[in-house]
Amino acid sequence: MQQLEDKLIQWRRDFHQYPETGFMEMRTASIVASILDKLGFQLKMGKEVMSEADCMGKPTEEETKKHYQWAQKNGAIDDYLNPFSEGYTGIVATLDTGKKGPIIAYRFDMDALDILESDSNEHFPHNEGFSSKVHGKMHACGHDSHTSMGLGLATLLIENKEELKGKIKLIFQPAEEGTRGAKAMAAANIVEDVDYFIATHIGVGVPHKQFVAANSGFLATSKLDITYDGTAAHAGGSPEEGKNALLAAAASVLSLHGISRHSGGATRINVGQLEAGAGRNIIANHASMKVETRGETSEINDYVKEQVTSVVSGAATMYQVEHNIETVGEALSCKCSLDLAGILHKCAEASPDIEISQLEDNTPGGSEDATYFMNEVQKNGGKATYCVFGTELAAGHHNEKFDIKEDTLLPAVNILFQSVKVIMEQ
């Protein structure tokens, strides 16, 4: 196992140095695909496993081409790069044992964040020489670890193939940040035949050497890009000729934060960014806002989103400007299948590396688009859960000093592998 642990750390540190944000994971995906292919998995990649119509918040064609060139120069595997050249960077790797049995799927996300990594002497990746080589981008949420764990699980599956039955799918997902990538993969029907689905995360507040088998506390969410377009005019000479997009945006910001809460559960609303205007003496003809809604259930989130639409259109009418609302990310609420979680819980309890295993934690928190996969599997009669491997964090998720304990990687892989063996006997 020492050799596998060394590989896990090597993979994680390599991915950490070359972070790629959503739909840009070309270098990462090409390396993952090359390893999985050499191991003997059947691969489907790119548009084969992603619905173009369901991709949200995808970078422009120009940005995508530029990043493709960057990937070519920074360690991407040329023989596997082409399927990802247009920014459809998902992978589904299948191991068919040739024996009758269940179909099990595991999801691992690959994307990084637009964060400048710390160069502090106290920051472990900086001291060890594997901090981000890409200015303004870093793996600040552990997805480099998740990708490595997926490759580690793939390695154990192949090494023990003769003991297994059924099929195992390993899903390497782009663009989890901003909840953008899973919907497109789910819409491509990659989990329609899956009996058991497991998504994983590292950290998220779970202490080192602890494990949560079912995290159902994710809030449904919508990420919205909103624009107002009016008419520019001289603010001193002819203000009456202008249609002020800035005022429409400002009015909507205040009203959005005043949306009534819902009696059915928790709600959230946040305007995270507002940009408007071109100069102090010009009636602003354009304004843009980045907004997110959240709800304890998908239905509650839909309620908040509907209120946002009403507020935004009302402000547009009031100031006689045009408006547009684009959904650039979305995730559902979901409840884990506790019988499947129970299997993972027992596997963790049997692990010498886990001190405390918890069956369920429903504390409301952030959002996760793995819920698209989970809902799809459950809708078709299958079971799904979202588990968390605890680790010691140097700083919180989405922080410039984020880092994990690398001794979490191998135990996590072993527990996932044990879950395969137990599920196959169900």
Structure notes:
- Its cofactor is Mn(2+).
- Mn(2+) binds at residues 141, 143, 177, 201, 398.
- Helix content is 34%, strand content 21%.
- With 426 residues, it is of the alpha/beta class.
- The protein folds into 2 domains: 2-218 and 334-423, Aminopeptidase (3-Layer(aba) Sandwich), CATH 3.40.630; 220-331, Alpha-Beta Plaits (2-Layer Sandwich), CATH 3.30.70.
- The strands form 2 sheets. The protein has an 8-stranded mixed beta sheet with strand order 1-2-4-3-5-12-6-11. Strands 8-9-7-10 form a 4-stranded antiparallel beta sheet.
Low-confidence stretches: none
User: At CATH's second level, what is the architecture of the largest domain?
Assistant: 3-Layer(aba) Sandwich
Helix fraction, binned, reads 25-40%
Whole-number average pLDDT? 97
Give the count of structural domains: 2
Largest sheet: 8 strands, mixed
Look up the CATH topology of the largest domain.
Aminopeptidase
How many angstroms separate the termini? 27 Å
Beta content? 15-25%
CATH superfamily of the largest domain: Zn peptidases
Number of helical elements: 12
Topology of this protein?
Elements: H1 2-17, H2 26-39, E1 42-45, H3 61-73, H4 78-81, E2 91-96, E3 103-109, H5 124-128, H6 143-159, E4 167-173, H7 182-187, E5 196-202, E6 210-215, E7 220-229, H8 245-256, E8 267-276, E9 286-295, H9 298-318, E10 322-331, H10 338-349, E11 356-361, H11 370-379, E12 383-389, H12 409-423
Parallel strand pairs: 3-4, 3-5, 5-12, 6-11
Antiparallel strand pairs: 1-2, 2-4, 6-12, 7-9, 7-10, 8-9
How would you concisely characterize the structure shown here?
With 426 residues, this protein is α/β, with parallel strands linked by helices.
